[in-house]
Amino acid sequence: MSTQLLGTSIIGFTRSTGTESSGQAVNPASGQKLDPVYVAPTLDEVDQAIALAGQAFPEYSTLPAAKRAEFLRKIADEIDAVVDDIAERGPLETGLPEPRMRGETARTTGQLRLFASLIEEGSWVDARIEFAQPDRQPLPKPDLRSMLRPLGPVAVFCASNFPLAFSVAGGDTAAALAAGCPVLVKAHSSHPGVAEIVGNCVLRAAQATGMPEGVFSLLYGSGREVGMALVKDPVVQAVGFTGSRSGGLALMEAAANRPQPIPVYAEMSSVNPVVLLPGAVEERGEALAEGLFGSLTLGAGQFCTNPGLIFLPDGCGDAFLAKLRELVETAPSAVMLNHGICQAFKEATADFADTPGVTTVAHAFTKQVEERAVPVVFTVNVRRFLEDAELHGEMFGPGTLIVRGSLEEIEATIPELEGQLTATVHGTDDELASSASLISALERRAGRLIINGFPTGVEVCHSMVHGGPFPATSDGRSTSVGTMAINRFCRPVSWQGFPQGLLPEELRDGNPLGISRMEDGKRV
Ligand code: NAP
User: Fold this and answer.
1) CATH topology of domain 10-268+478-488
2) For a pocket test of ligand 1, which of 38, 93, 160, 336 has the largest count of ligand atoms closer than 8 A to its C-beta?
3) Which residues form the Aldehyde dehydrogenase domain (predicted)?
4) Measured from the CB, is residue 94 less than 6 Å from ligand 1?
5) 117: which of 138, 219, 221, 286 is 20 to 30 A away, CA to CA?
6) Which of 222, 244, 394 has the most ligand 1 atoms within 8 A of CB, as the residue to mutate?
Protein backbone atom coordinates (compact mmCIF):
# COMPACT_ATOMS: atom_id res chain seq x y z
CA MET A 1 0.00 0.00 0.00
CA SER A 2 1.46 3.37 -0.97
CA THR A 3 -0.31 5.30 1.84
CA GLN A 4 1.40 5.08 5.20
CA LEU A 5 -1.27 5.08 7.89
CA LEU A 6 -0.30 7.23 10.89
CA GLY A 7 -3.36 6.62 13.08
CA THR A 8 -3.82 10.30 13.93
CA SER A 9 -6.46 12.95 13.32
CA ILE A 10 -6.00 15.74 10.80
CA ILE A 11 -6.38 19.13 12.50
CA GLY A 12 -6.39 21.76 9.76
CA PHE A 13 -3.04 21.29 8.02
CA THR A 14 -1.35 19.43 10.92
CA ARG A 15 -1.65 16.06 12.65
CA SER A 16 -2.94 15.43 16.15
CA THR A 17 -0.40 14.66 18.84
CA GLY A 18 -2.96 13.04 21.19
CA THR A 19 -1.92 9.79 22.86
CA GLU A 20 -5.17 8.20 24.05
CA SER A 21 -6.08 5.13 22.00
CA SER A 22 -9.41 5.21 20.23
CA GLY A 23 -8.98 1.60 19.09
CA GLN A 24 -7.95 -0.35 16.04
CA ALA A 25 -9.89 -1.46 13.01
CA VAL A 26 -11.01 -5.08 13.26
CA ASN A 27 -11.28 -7.39 10.28
CA PRO A 28 -14.90 -8.58 10.60
CA ALA A 29 -14.12 -11.79 8.68
CA SER A 30 -11.34 -12.95 11.00
CA GLY A 31 -11.68 -10.86 14.14
CA GLN A 32 -8.04 -9.85 13.68
CA LYS A 33 -7.01 -6.34 14.73
CA LEU A 34 -5.47 -4.19 12.01
CA ASP A 35 -2.60 -1.75 12.56
CA PRO A 36 -2.17 1.06 13.34
CA VAL A 37 -3.76 1.92 16.68
CA TYR A 38 -5.90 5.02 16.12
CA VAL A 39 -5.42 7.83 18.58
CA ALA A 40 -8.15 10.20 19.72
CA PRO A 41 -7.41 13.93 19.47
CA THR A 42 -7.23 15.83 22.75
CA LEU A 43 -10.24 18.03 23.48
CA ASP A 44 -7.94 21.03 22.94
CA GLU A 45 -7.21 19.72 19.46
CA VAL A 46 -10.92 19.28 18.77
CA ASP A 47 -11.41 22.91 19.83
CA GLN A 48 -8.51 23.92 17.59
CA ALA A 49 -10.03 22.13 14.57
CA ILE A 50 -13.36 23.88 15.22
CA ALA A 51 -11.69 27.27 15.65
CA LEU A 52 -9.76 26.80 12.39
CA ALA A 53 -13.01 25.92 10.60
CA GLY A 54 -14.59 29.08 11.99
CA GLN A 55 -11.63 31.18 10.85
CA ALA A 56 -11.63 29.56 7.39
CA PHE A 57 -15.34 30.24 6.82
CA PRO A 58 -15.29 33.96 5.83
CA GLU A 59 -12.56 33.38 3.23
CA TYR A 60 -13.75 29.99 1.97
CA SER A 61 -17.40 31.04 1.67
CA THR A 62 -16.52 34.03 -0.51
CA LEU A 63 -14.13 32.27 -2.88
CA PRO A 64 -15.29 32.27 -6.50
CA ALA A 65 -17.22 29.09 -7.35
CA ALA A 66 -14.49 28.17 -9.83
CA LYS A 67 -11.94 27.96 -6.96
CA ARG A 68 -14.17 25.72 -4.86
CA ALA A 69 -14.84 23.58 -7.94
CA GLU A 70 -11.09 23.25 -8.50
CA PHE A 71 -10.72 22.05 -4.87
CA LEU A 72 -13.52 19.48 -5.28
CA ARG A 73 -12.02 18.15 -8.52
CA LYS A 74 -8.57 17.96 -6.94
CA ILE A 75 -10.00 15.90 -4.06
CA ALA A 76 -11.56 13.55 -6.63
CA ASP A 77 -8.27 13.24 -8.53
CA GLU A 78 -6.35 12.54 -5.32
CA ILE A 79 -8.83 9.82 -4.32
CA ASP A 80 -8.74 8.22 -7.77
CA ALA A 81 -4.94 8.10 -7.49
CA VAL A 82 -5.11 5.95 -4.32
CA VAL A 83 -7.96 3.66 -5.35
CA ASP A 84 -5.62 0.65 -5.09
CA ASP A 85 -4.91 1.49 -1.44
CA ILE A 86 -8.65 1.82 -0.78
CA ALA A 87 -9.29 -1.48 -2.57
CA GLU A 88 -6.64 -3.14 -0.39
CA ARG A 89 -7.54 -1.68 3.01
CA GLY A 90 -11.33 -1.36 2.60
CA PRO A 91 -12.20 -5.07 2.40
CA LEU A 92 -10.03 -5.81 5.46
CA GLU A 93 -11.85 -3.21 7.54
CA THR A 94 -15.41 -3.71 6.31
CA GLY A 95 -15.78 -7.21 4.87
CA LEU A 96 -17.05 -5.56 1.69
CA PRO A 97 -15.50 -6.99 -1.48
CA GLU A 98 -12.83 -5.21 -3.51
CA PRO A 99 -15.12 -4.48 -6.51
CA ARG A 100 -17.53 -2.72 -4.14
CA MET A 101 -14.63 -0.59 -2.85
CA ARG A 102 -13.64 0.38 -6.37
CA GLY A 103 -17.25 1.04 -7.37
CA GLU A 104 -17.92 3.14 -4.29
CA THR A 105 -14.70 5.09 -4.88
CA ALA A 106 -15.86 5.90 -8.42
CA ARG A 107 -19.26 6.96 -7.08
CA THR A 108 -17.57 9.22 -4.52
CA THR A 109 -15.27 10.93 -6.98
CA GLY A 110 -18.13 11.23 -9.49
CA GLN A 111 -20.17 12.90 -6.75
CA LEU A 112 -17.40 15.42 -6.03
CA ARG A 113 -17.08 16.25 -9.74
CA LEU A 114 -20.87 16.58 -10.09
CA PHE A 115 -20.91 19.19 -7.29
CA ALA A 116 -17.99 20.98 -8.97
CA SER A 117 -20.04 21.23 -12.19
CA LEU A 118 -23.11 22.35 -10.25
CA ILE A 119 -21.39 25.31 -8.62
CA GLU A 120 -19.59 26.28 -11.84
CA GLU A 121 -22.95 26.36 -13.65
CA GLY A 122 -24.11 28.58 -10.80
CA SER A 123 -27.92 28.57 -10.97
CA TRP A 124 -28.21 26.49 -7.78
CA VAL A 125 -28.00 29.71 -5.70
CA ASP A 126 -31.64 30.46 -6.68
CA ALA A 127 -30.98 34.13 -7.45
CA ARG A 128 -34.13 36.28 -7.32
CA ILE A 129 -34.30 39.95 -8.23
CA GLU A 130 -37.15 42.40 -7.74
CA PHE A 131 -36.26 45.76 -9.23
CA ALA A 132 -37.09 48.94 -7.35
CA GLN A 133 -40.29 50.84 -8.22
CA PRO A 134 -39.71 54.28 -6.66
CA ASP A 135 -43.00 55.59 -8.03
CA ARG A 136 -45.19 52.75 -6.77
CA GLN A 137 -48.28 53.93 -4.86
CA PRO A 138 -49.06 54.06 -2.03
CA LEU A 139 -45.45 53.14 -1.13
CA PRO A 140 -42.30 52.87 -3.21
CA LYS A 141 -40.96 49.33 -3.72
CA PRO A 142 -37.30 48.86 -2.76
CA ASP A 143 -34.73 46.97 -4.85
CA LEU A 144 -34.61 43.47 -3.29
CA ARG A 145 -32.34 40.62 -4.34
CA SER A 146 -31.88 37.21 -2.72
CA MET A 147 -29.82 34.06 -3.06
CA LEU A 148 -28.59 31.10 -1.02
CA ARG A 149 -25.47 31.56 1.09
CA PRO A 150 -23.51 28.92 3.08
CA LEU A 151 -24.41 28.28 6.72
CA GLY A 152 -20.97 27.94 8.30
CA PRO A 153 -18.80 25.01 9.47
CA VAL A 154 -20.54 21.62 9.18
CA ALA A 155 -19.93 18.46 11.25
CA VAL A 156 -20.20 15.24 9.22
CA PHE A 157 -20.43 11.79 10.86
CA CYS A 158 -19.08 8.97 8.67
CA ALA A 159 -21.46 6.05 8.03
CA SER A 160 -20.43 2.48 8.80
CA ASN A 161 -22.15 1.08 5.72
CA PHE A 162 -20.66 3.43 3.11
CA PRO A 163 -16.96 3.87 3.93
CA LEU A 164 -16.55 6.22 0.97
CA ALA A 165 -19.78 7.61 -0.49
CA PHE A 166 -21.25 8.59 2.94
CA SER A 167 -18.00 9.16 4.78
CA VAL A 168 -14.94 11.47 4.78
CA ALA A 169 -15.37 12.88 1.26
CA GLY A 170 -18.91 11.54 0.74
CA GLY A 171 -22.16 13.27 -0.14
CA ASP A 172 -22.53 15.57 2.87
CA THR A 173 -18.88 16.66 2.71
CA ALA A 174 -19.08 17.31 -1.04
CA ALA A 175 -22.35 19.25 -0.65
CA ALA A 176 -21.05 21.34 2.26
CA LEU A 177 -17.71 22.14 0.59
CA ALA A 178 -19.53 22.99 -2.65
CA ALA A 179 -21.85 25.36 -0.78
CA GLY A 180 -18.89 27.14 0.83
CA CYS A 181 -18.89 25.51 4.28
CA PRO A 182 -15.75 24.13 5.99
CA VAL A 183 -16.19 20.51 7.11
CA LEU A 184 -15.25 18.74 10.35
CA VAL A 185 -15.47 14.98 9.85
CA LYS A 186 -15.96 12.52 12.71
CA ALA A 187 -14.46 9.21 11.51
CA HIS A 188 -16.32 5.90 12.05
CA SER A 189 -14.47 3.32 14.15
CA SER A 190 -15.37 0.61 11.63
CA HIS A 191 -13.11 1.90 8.85
CA PRO A 192 -10.48 4.28 10.26
CA GLY A 193 -7.84 3.34 7.68
CA VAL A 194 -10.04 4.14 4.68
CA ALA A 195 -10.96 7.38 6.46
CA GLU A 196 -7.29 8.28 6.81
CA ILE A 197 -6.48 7.44 3.18
CA VAL A 198 -9.32 9.70 2.00
CA GLY A 199 -8.59 12.36 4.66
CA ASN A 200 -5.03 12.61 3.34
CA CYS A 201 -6.45 13.18 -0.15
CA VAL A 202 -8.64 16.07 1.05
CA LEU A 203 -5.69 17.56 2.96
CA ARG A 204 -3.39 17.38 -0.08
CA ALA A 205 -6.10 18.86 -2.30
CA ALA A 206 -6.72 21.74 0.13
CA GLN A 207 -3.02 22.60 0.24
CA ALA A 208 -2.48 22.20 -3.50
CA THR A 209 -5.40 24.49 -4.40
CA GLY A 210 -4.63 27.16 -1.80
CA MET A 211 -7.63 26.65 0.46
CA PRO A 212 -7.56 28.29 3.90
CA GLU A 213 -6.40 26.07 6.75
CA GLY A 214 -9.43 24.68 8.61
CA VAL A 215 -11.52 24.08 5.49
CA PHE A 216 -11.27 20.40 6.47
CA SER A 217 -10.38 18.37 9.55
CA LEU A 218 -10.72 14.66 10.25
CA LEU A 219 -11.24 13.58 13.85
CA TYR A 220 -11.01 10.13 15.39
CA GLY A 221 -12.33 9.38 18.90
CA SER A 222 -15.74 8.52 20.31
CA GLY A 223 -19.06 9.92 19.19
CA ARG A 224 -20.09 10.83 22.69
CA GLU A 225 -16.94 12.90 23.29
CA VAL A 226 -15.55 14.15 19.99
CA GLY A 227 -18.83 13.94 18.05
CA MET A 228 -20.82 15.71 20.75
CA ALA A 229 -18.12 18.37 21.14
CA LEU A 230 -18.62 19.19 17.46
CA VAL A 231 -22.40 19.26 17.64
CA LYS A 232 -22.44 21.47 20.74
CA ASP A 233 -19.82 24.01 19.67
CA PRO A 234 -21.32 27.40 18.71
CA VAL A 235 -19.07 27.63 15.62
CA VAL A 236 -20.67 24.53 14.05
CA GLN A 237 -23.83 25.39 12.10
CA ALA A 238 -25.17 22.06 10.79
CA VAL A 239 -24.70 18.31 11.17
CA GLY A 240 -24.83 15.43 8.66
CA PHE A 241 -25.25 11.89 10.03
CA THR A 242 -26.08 8.37 8.83
CA GLY A 243 -26.44 5.60 11.38
CA SER A 244 -28.65 4.29 14.15
CA ARG A 245 -31.90 5.88 15.28
CA SER A 246 -30.56 6.23 18.82
CA GLY A 247 -27.41 7.99 17.58
CA GLY A 248 -29.37 10.30 15.29
CA LEU A 249 -31.86 11.17 18.05
CA ALA A 250 -29.03 11.94 20.48
CA LEU A 251 -27.48 14.38 18.00
CA MET A 252 -30.85 15.98 17.22
CA GLU A 253 -31.48 16.50 20.93
CA ALA A 254 -28.04 18.01 21.52
CA ALA A 255 -28.44 20.32 18.51
CA ALA A 256 -31.92 21.42 19.58
CA ASN A 257 -30.76 22.15 23.14
CA ARG A 258 -27.92 24.47 22.15
CA PRO A 259 -28.42 28.16 22.95
CA GLN A 260 -28.52 28.50 19.15
CA PRO A 261 -30.18 25.32 17.81
CA ILE A 262 -28.85 24.05 14.49
CA PRO A 263 -30.20 21.66 11.83
CA VAL A 264 -29.24 17.98 12.02
CA TYR A 265 -29.65 15.99 8.82
CA ALA A 266 -29.75 12.47 10.23
CA GLU A 267 -30.56 9.44 8.12
CA MET A 268 -31.64 6.72 10.55
CA SER A 269 -33.89 3.84 9.61
CA SER A 270 -36.17 2.83 6.78
CA VAL A 271 -37.76 -0.48 5.79
CA ASN A 272 -38.60 0.65 2.24
CA PRO A 273 -42.02 -0.96 1.67
CA VAL A 274 -42.61 -2.85 -1.57
CA VAL A 275 -46.23 -3.43 -2.61
CA LEU A 276 -46.73 -6.35 -5.00
CA LEU A 277 -50.00 -6.15 -6.91
CA PRO A 278 -51.65 -9.49 -7.81
CA GLY A 279 -51.41 -9.21 -11.60
CA ALA A 280 -47.66 -8.59 -11.48
CA VAL A 281 -47.17 -11.43 -9.01
CA GLU A 282 -49.05 -13.85 -11.25
CA GLU A 283 -47.37 -12.56 -14.42
CA ARG A 284 -43.75 -12.55 -13.21
CA GLY A 285 -43.64 -14.08 -9.72
CA GLU A 286 -40.27 -15.80 -10.13
CA ALA A 287 -38.61 -12.72 -11.63
CA LEU A 288 -39.96 -10.61 -8.76
CA ALA A 289 -38.54 -13.10 -6.26
CA GLU A 290 -35.14 -12.93 -7.96
CA GLY A 291 -35.17 -9.14 -8.07
CA LEU A 292 -36.22 -8.77 -4.46
CA PHE A 293 -33.72 -11.37 -3.31
CA GLY A 294 -30.93 -9.49 -5.14
CA SER A 295 -31.99 -6.20 -3.58
CA LEU A 296 -32.35 -7.78 -0.11
CA THR A 297 -28.94 -9.44 -0.08
CA LEU A 298 -26.89 -6.78 -1.87
CA GLY A 299 -24.01 -5.77 0.40
CA ALA A 300 -25.23 -8.30 3.00
CA GLY A 301 -28.43 -6.26 3.24
CA GLN A 302 -26.58 -3.33 4.78
CA PHE A 303 -28.14 -0.67 2.58
CA CYS A 304 -30.46 2.00 3.91
CA THR A 305 -32.73 1.26 0.93
CA ASN A 306 -32.91 -2.46 1.66
CA PRO A 307 -36.45 -3.83 1.02
CA GLY A 308 -37.34 -4.84 4.58
CA LEU A 309 -41.14 -4.90 4.16
CA ILE A 310 -43.09 -6.56 1.36
CA PHE A 311 -46.86 -6.40 0.99
CA LEU A 312 -48.24 -9.47 -0.79
CA PRO A 313 -52.01 -9.63 -1.37
CA ASP A 314 -53.90 -12.74 -0.30
CA GLY A 315 -54.71 -15.31 -2.96
CA CYS A 316 -51.58 -14.96 -5.08
CA GLY A 317 -47.85 -15.58 -4.95
CA ASP A 318 -47.24 -19.34 -4.81
CA ALA A 319 -44.54 -19.23 -7.51
CA PHE A 320 -43.09 -16.03 -6.03
CA LEU A 321 -42.82 -17.55 -2.55
CA ALA A 322 -41.44 -20.86 -3.80
CA LYS A 323 -38.68 -19.09 -5.74
CA LEU A 324 -37.88 -16.75 -2.85
CA ARG A 325 -37.66 -19.72 -0.48
CA GLU A 326 -35.34 -21.57 -2.86
CA LEU A 327 -33.05 -18.53 -3.24
CA VAL A 328 -32.91 -17.76 0.48
CA GLU A 329 -32.36 -21.34 1.59
CA THR A 330 -29.42 -21.80 -0.79
CA ALA A 331 -27.90 -18.36 -0.20
CA PRO A 332 -24.33 -18.16 1.07
CA SER A 333 -23.64 -16.46 4.39
CA ALA A 334 -22.01 -13.04 4.29
CA VAL A 335 -19.61 -11.13 6.52
CA MET A 336 -21.23 -8.04 8.01
CA LEU A 337 -19.54 -4.68 8.55
CA ASN A 338 -18.62 -5.24 12.16
CA HIS A 339 -19.37 -7.36 15.21
CA GLY A 340 -21.94 -4.94 16.63
CA ILE A 341 -23.95 -4.74 13.41
CA CYS A 342 -23.87 -8.54 13.02
CA GLN A 343 -25.07 -9.02 16.61
CA ALA A 344 -27.79 -6.41 16.15
CA PHE A 345 -29.03 -8.21 13.02
CA LYS A 346 -29.10 -11.55 14.78
CA GLU A 347 -30.98 -10.09 17.74
CA ALA A 348 -33.50 -8.32 15.50
CA THR A 349 -34.21 -11.48 13.48
CA ALA A 350 -34.47 -13.57 16.68
CA ASP A 351 -37.03 -11.06 18.02
CA PHE A 352 -39.06 -11.26 14.80
CA ALA A 353 -38.93 -15.07 14.88
CA ASP A 354 -40.22 -15.07 18.48
CA THR A 355 -43.06 -12.62 17.85
CA PRO A 356 -46.52 -14.23 18.09
CA GLY A 357 -48.16 -14.41 14.66
CA VAL A 358 -44.88 -14.19 12.77
CA THR A 359 -43.84 -17.23 10.71
CA THR A 360 -40.45 -17.88 9.14
CA VAL A 361 -40.88 -18.33 5.38
CA ALA A 362 -37.25 -19.08 4.61
CA HIS A 363 -33.96 -19.04 6.48
CA ALA A 364 -30.71 -20.82 5.75
CA PHE A 365 -30.40 -21.89 9.40
CA THR A 366 -27.77 -24.50 8.69
CA LYS A 367 -25.39 -21.85 7.39
CA GLN A 368 -25.78 -19.61 10.45
CA VAL A 369 -22.23 -19.09 11.59
CA GLU A 370 -20.53 -16.67 13.96
CA GLU A 371 -19.95 -13.17 12.59
CA ARG A 372 -21.79 -13.91 9.36
CA ALA A 373 -25.37 -13.28 8.31
CA VAL A 374 -27.73 -15.30 6.17
CA PRO A 375 -30.92 -13.94 4.62
CA VAL A 376 -34.18 -14.54 6.38
CA VAL A 377 -37.80 -13.94 5.31
CA PHE A 378 -40.71 -13.76 7.75
CA THR A 379 -44.41 -13.39 7.16
CA VAL A 380 -47.30 -11.98 9.19
CA ASN A 381 -50.95 -11.16 8.71
CA VAL A 382 -51.68 -7.46 8.09
CA ARG A 383 -53.95 -7.18 11.16
CA ARG A 384 -51.25 -8.57 13.45
CA PHE A 385 -48.73 -6.27 11.77
CA LEU A 386 -50.89 -3.26 12.58
CA GLU A 387 -51.13 -4.28 16.24
CA ASP A 388 -47.38 -4.53 16.83
CA ALA A 389 -45.24 -1.46 16.13
CA GLU A 390 -42.08 -3.52 16.75
CA LEU A 391 -42.77 -5.29 13.46
CA HIS A 392 -42.51 -1.96 11.60
CA GLY A 393 -38.83 -1.56 12.58
CA GLU A 394 -35.61 -2.14 10.68
CA MET A 395 -33.64 -5.43 10.76
CA PHE A 396 -30.41 -3.88 9.46
CA GLY A 397 -29.16 -6.72 7.26
CA PRO A 398 -30.63 -9.26 4.81
CA GLY A 399 -33.98 -9.70 6.60
CA THR A 400 -37.46 -8.89 5.34
CA LEU A 401 -41.07 -9.26 6.46
CA ILE A 402 -43.87 -10.22 4.07
CA VAL A 403 -47.22 -8.80 5.19
CA ARG A 404 -50.32 -10.52 3.81
CA GLY A 405 -53.89 -9.25 3.58
CA SER A 406 -56.48 -8.02 1.12
CA LEU A 407 -55.52 -5.17 -1.20
CA GLU A 408 -57.89 -2.88 0.72
CA GLU A 409 -56.23 -3.81 4.02
CA ILE A 410 -52.77 -3.25 2.54
CA GLU A 411 -53.71 0.20 1.27
CA ALA A 412 -55.23 1.09 4.64
CA THR A 413 -51.94 0.10 6.32
CA ILE A 414 -49.74 2.51 4.36
CA PRO A 415 -50.64 5.63 6.44
CA GLU A 416 -49.72 3.67 9.60
CA LEU A 417 -46.12 3.14 8.42
CA GLU A 418 -43.27 5.30 9.63
CA GLY A 419 -41.53 7.67 7.20
CA GLN A 420 -39.44 5.88 4.57
CA LEU A 421 -36.62 6.61 2.15
CA THR A 422 -38.36 4.70 -0.63
CA ALA A 423 -41.65 3.00 -1.51
CA THR A 424 -42.06 0.61 -4.43
CA VAL A 425 -45.04 -0.74 -6.35
CA HIS A 426 -44.96 -3.66 -8.77
CA GLY A 427 -48.01 -3.96 -10.99
CA THR A 428 -49.22 -4.53 -14.53
CA ASP A 429 -50.03 -1.46 -16.61
CA ASP A 430 -53.74 -1.87 -15.86
CA GLU A 431 -53.13 -2.31 -12.13
CA LEU A 432 -50.90 0.74 -11.96
CA ALA A 433 -53.42 2.83 -13.87
CA SER A 434 -55.98 2.12 -11.15
CA SER A 435 -53.59 2.52 -8.19
CA ALA A 436 -53.56 6.31 -7.87
CA SER A 437 -54.78 6.33 -4.26
CA LEU A 438 -52.24 3.66 -3.20
CA ILE A 439 -49.43 5.59 -4.88
CA SER A 440 -50.45 8.86 -3.33
CA ALA A 441 -50.64 7.20 0.11
CA LEU A 442 -47.08 5.96 -0.45
CA GLU A 443 -45.98 9.42 -1.56
CA ARG A 444 -47.05 10.76 1.83
CA ARG A 445 -44.73 8.27 3.56
CA ALA A 446 -41.58 8.24 1.37
CA GLY A 447 -38.94 10.37 -0.33
CA ARG A 448 -38.60 8.28 -3.52
CA LEU A 449 -41.30 6.28 -5.33
CA ILE A 450 -40.33 3.39 -7.60
CA ILE A 451 -42.51 1.59 -10.13
CA ASN A 452 -41.55 -1.94 -11.22
CA GLY A 453 -37.99 -1.58 -9.91
CA PHE A 454 -36.06 -2.23 -6.71
CA PRO A 455 -35.06 0.31 -4.07
CA THR A 456 -31.32 -0.40 -3.79
CA GLY A 457 -29.08 1.40 -6.27
CA VAL A 458 -29.30 5.12 -5.60
CA GLU A 459 -28.41 7.20 -8.65
CA VAL A 460 -26.27 10.26 -7.90
CA CYS A 461 -27.84 12.99 -10.03
CA HIS A 462 -29.73 16.27 -9.96
CA SER A 463 -33.19 14.75 -9.45
CA MET A 464 -32.40 12.13 -6.80
CA VAL A 465 -34.14 12.41 -3.43
CA HIS A 466 -32.56 10.23 -0.80
CA GLY A 467 -34.50 11.42 2.19
CA GLY A 468 -37.96 11.02 3.63
CA PRO A 469 -40.22 11.75 6.59
CA PHE A 470 -39.02 10.84 10.10
CA PRO A 471 -37.48 8.45 11.08
CA ALA A 472 -36.06 7.73 7.62
CA THR A 473 -34.46 11.11 8.15
CA SER A 474 -34.69 13.85 10.74
CA ASP A 475 -35.77 16.34 8.07
CA GLY A 476 -37.73 15.07 5.08
CA ARG A 477 -37.32 18.39 3.27
CA SER A 478 -33.87 17.46 2.02
CA THR A 479 -31.77 14.76 0.39
CA SER A 480 -28.35 13.32 1.23
CA VAL A 481 -27.68 12.09 -2.33
CA GLY A 482 -27.62 14.21 -5.47
CA THR A 483 -27.01 17.88 -6.00
CA MET A 484 -30.11 19.08 -4.10
CA ALA A 485 -28.12 18.11 -0.97
CA ILE A 486 -26.34 21.45 -1.27
CA ASN A 487 -29.50 23.15 0.07
CA ARG A 488 -28.91 21.49 3.46
CA PHE A 489 -25.99 23.75 4.13
CA CYS A 490 -27.35 27.11 2.96
CA ARG A 491 -29.78 29.77 4.01
CA PRO A 492 -31.43 32.50 1.93
CA VAL A 493 -30.21 36.07 2.32
CA SER A 494 -31.83 39.24 0.87
CA TRP A 495 -29.96 42.40 -0.07
CA GLN A 496 -32.17 45.50 -0.04
CA GLY A 497 -31.26 48.76 -1.77
CA PHE A 498 -27.66 47.71 -2.36
CA PRO A 499 -25.31 49.47 -4.79
CA GLN A 500 -24.12 47.16 -7.59
CA GLY A 501 -20.54 46.98 -6.35
CA LEU A 502 -21.60 45.58 -2.96
CA LEU A 503 -23.86 42.87 -4.38
CA PRO A 504 -22.65 39.28 -4.95
CA GLU A 505 -21.91 38.79 -8.66
CA GLU A 506 -24.85 36.39 -8.94
CA LEU A 507 -27.24 39.28 -8.24
CA ARG A 508 -25.74 42.10 -10.27
CA ASP A 509 -27.45 43.85 -13.17
CA GLY A 510 -26.65 42.38 -16.56
CA ASN A 511 -26.24 38.87 -15.03
CA PRO A 512 -22.43 38.79 -15.41
CA LEU A 513 -22.27 35.07 -14.53
CA GLY A 514 -25.01 34.18 -17.03
CA ILE A 515 -26.93 32.04 -14.54
CA SER A 516 -30.63 31.26 -14.54
CA ARG A 517 -32.37 33.83 -12.29
CA MET A 518 -35.85 35.02 -11.43
CA GLU A 519 -36.33 38.69 -12.32
CA ASP A 520 -39.59 40.37 -11.33
CA GLY A 521 -41.24 36.94 -11.09
CA LYS A 522 -40.06 35.68 -14.49
CA ARG A 523 -37.39 32.99 -14.99
CA VAL A 524 -34.63 34.41 -17.24
P1 NAP B 1 -24.20 4.43 15.13
O2 NAP B 1 -24.01 3.54 16.29
O3 NAP B 1 -25.36 5.34 15.17
O4 NAP B 1 -22.85 5.26 14.94
C5 NAP B 1 -22.68 6.20 13.88
C6 NAP B 1 -21.79 7.33 14.36
O7 NAP B 1 -22.50 8.12 15.32
C8 NAP B 1 -20.52 6.88 15.06
O9 NAP B 1 -19.50 7.78 14.74
C10 NAP B 1 -20.87 6.97 16.52
O11 NAP B 1 -19.75 7.19 17.35
C12 NAP B 1 -21.79 8.17 16.55
N13 NAP B 1 -22.76 8.08 17.63
C14 NAP B 1 -23.64 7.08 17.86
N15 NAP B 1 -24.37 7.34 18.97
C16 NAP B 1 -23.96 8.54 19.42
C17 NAP B 1 -24.34 9.35 20.53
N18 NAP B 1 -25.29 8.97 21.38
N19 NAP B 1 -23.70 10.51 20.70
C20 NAP B 1 -22.74 10.91 19.84
N21 NAP B 1 -22.33 10.19 18.78
C22 NAP B 1 -22.94 9.02 18.57
O23 NAP B 1 -24.35 3.61 13.78
P24 NAP B 1 -23.49 2.40 13.17
O25 NAP B 1 -22.30 2.16 14.01
O26 NAP B 1 -23.28 2.73 11.78
O27 NAP B 1 -24.46 1.16 13.20
C28 NAP B 1 -25.28 0.79 14.30
C29 NAP B 1 -26.69 0.50 13.81
O30 NAP B 1 -27.19 1.63 13.09
C31 NAP B 1 -26.82 -0.64 12.77
O32 NAP B 1 -26.89 -1.90 13.36
C33 NAP B 1 -28.08 -0.26 12.05
O34 NAP B 1 -29.19 -0.73 12.78
C35 NAP B 1 -28.09 1.23 12.07
N36 NAP B 1 -27.65 1.81 10.77
C37 NAP B 1 -28.60 2.17 9.90
C38 NAP B 1 -28.23 2.70 8.67
C39 NAP B 1 -29.26 3.13 7.67
O40 NAP B 1 -28.88 3.70 6.67
N41 NAP B 1 -30.53 2.90 7.89
C42 NAP B 1 -26.90 2.87 8.34
C43 NAP B 1 -25.94 2.49 9.27
C44 NAP B 1 -26.33 1.97 10.48
P45 NAP B 1 -18.81 6.00 17.89
O46 NAP B 1 -17.70 5.95 16.91
O47 NAP B 1 -18.38 6.42 19.23
O48 NAP B 1 -19.63 4.77 17.91
Assistant:
1) Aldehyde Dehydrogenase; Chain A, domain 1 (3.40.605)
2) 160
3) 22-331
4) no
5) 219
6) 244
- Indicate which residue of 158, 304, 342, 490 is catalytic: 304
- d(CA 478, CA 13) in angstroms, rounded, equals 32
Q: What separation in Å is there between the alpha carbon of 178 and the centre of ligand 1?
A: 26
Q: For 133-177, list the strands marked E by DSSP.
A: 144-150, 154-157
CA of 31 to the centre of ligand 1 (A): 20
Cβ-contact 461, 107 below 8 angstroms: no
Strands (E) across 331-456 are located at: 334-335, 359-363, 372-373, 376-381, 399-405, 420-426, 446-451
Q: What is the pLDDT along the chain (524 residues), one digit of tens a residue?
A: 888 999 999 999 999 998 899 999 999 999 999 999 999 999 999 999 999 999 999 999 999 999 999 999 999 999 999 999 999 999 999 999 999 999 999 999 999 999 999 999 999 999 999 999 999 999 999 999 999 999 999 999 999 999 999 999 999 999 999 999 999 999 999 999 999 999 999 999 999 999 999 999 999 999 999 999 999 999 999 999 999 999 999 999 999 999 999 999 999 999 999 999 999 999 999 999 999 999 999 999 999 999 999 999 999 999 999 999 999 999 999 999 999 999 999 999 999 999 999 999 999 766 666 779 999 999 999 999 999 999 999 999 999 999 999 999 999 999 999 999 999 999 999 999 999 999 999 999 999 999 999 999 999 999 999 999 999 999 999 999 999 999 999 999 999 999 999 999 999 999 999 999 999 999 99
Domains in the chain: boundaries: 10-268+478-488, 273-451
Q: Identify the residue whose C-alpha is closest to ligand 1 atom 42.
A: 243
For ligand 1, say whether the CB of 160 is within 6 Å of any of its atoms.
Answer: yes
pTM over 0.85: yes
CA 3 / ligand 1 centre spacing (Å): 27
Residues 124 and 136 sit within 8 Å (Cβ to Cβ): no
Establish whether residue 304 lines the binding site of ligand 1, counting it when its CB lies within 6 angstroms of any ligand atom: yes
Measured in angstroms, how far is the CA atom of residue 481 from the centroid of ligand 1?
19
CA of 244 relative to ligand 1 center, distance in Å: 4
Q: Indicate if 304 belongs to the active site.
A: yes
Q: What is the DSSP string of 2-48?
A: -SPP----EETTEE----SEEEEEE-TTT--EEEEEEEPPPHHHHHH
Establish whether 267 is a catalytic residue. yes
Q: Half-sphere exposure (CA, 13 Å, Cβ side) for 215?
A: 29
Q: Which helix (H) or strand (E) holds 275?
A: strand 273-276
Kindly name the residue from 45, 104, 267, 506 that is annotated as catalytic: 267
Q: Residue 186: CB within 6 Å of ligand 1?
A: yes
DSSP one-letter string for 215-243: SEEEE-S-IIIIIHHHHH-TT--EEEEES
